[in-house]
Amino acid sequence: MGHCARHSRNRTPAALQRCHRRRARRLRSRHHGRGRRCDGHSDDNGGQDTGKLNVTYDHNWFDGTTQRNPRVRFGNPVHVLNNYFSNIASYGVASTQNAGVIVEGNSFENVKDPCHLGEGSSHPGSLVAKDNRFVNSGKGQTGGTVAPIPYPYTAAPASGVKASVTAGAGVGKI
Fold it and tell me: How many Cβ atoms sit within 10 Å of the Cβ of residue 90?
């Protein structure tokens, strides 16, 4: 899925939610505003979801959202690569319920809590962060190990992600 805009008018849960029992999926060049994203729809679905929620988020713009950019349960690895996070009210990325998330080459601007382990009543997952850029933002929480990314890729330098993503994310941009 690519070059879309997803906004929730009243900040209701999950303008975009990838529920459960999904295999590999790539979400690219989207402009997310207000809504929230969650991979794995319930803490109780480990039996159905473990090993199936392998998602790559790349070149997305998470703009003024509150949280769940994404919040991941059970997926390992989930790759959050070269995204731009701006003005996030609560937290950026959360790894919960045995998930494994790699947060790599992203740009965080005005994000108090870029990434953390666990959320609410959900147990912590694992999160590895590397080569991210933080402007007026916290540094995030990391811990544990994550399965290797199963495809070849080259991460862009985080210093150029904001310009690249804002120029190319959203409806009508290619």
Answer: 15
Given a contact cutoff of 8 angstroms between Cβ atoms, the answer to whether 113 and 138 are in contact is yes
DSSP string of 76-113?
SSEEEES-EEEEESS-SEEEETT-EEEEES-EEEEES-
Instruction: State pTM to two decimals.
Output: 0.77
Residues 67, 44: Cα–Cα separation, whole Å = 21
DSSP 3-state assignment of 135? strand
Residue 68 known to be catalytic = yes
Q: What is the CA radius of gyration of the chain?
A: 14
- Over the stretch 38-85, which tens digit does the pLDDT of each residue have? 444 444 454 555 565 678 889 989 999 887 788 888 889 999 999 999
DSSP 3-state percent helix, strand, coil across the chain (nearest 5): 10, 35, 55
Q: Give yes or no for a cis peptide into 152 (omega within 30° of 0).
A: no
Identify the active-site residue in 36, 37, 68, 73.
68
The predicted-structure confidence for 112-123, as pLDDT tens digits, reads as follows 999 999 998 889
Could you count the other beta carbons within 10 Å of the beta carbon of residue 165? 27
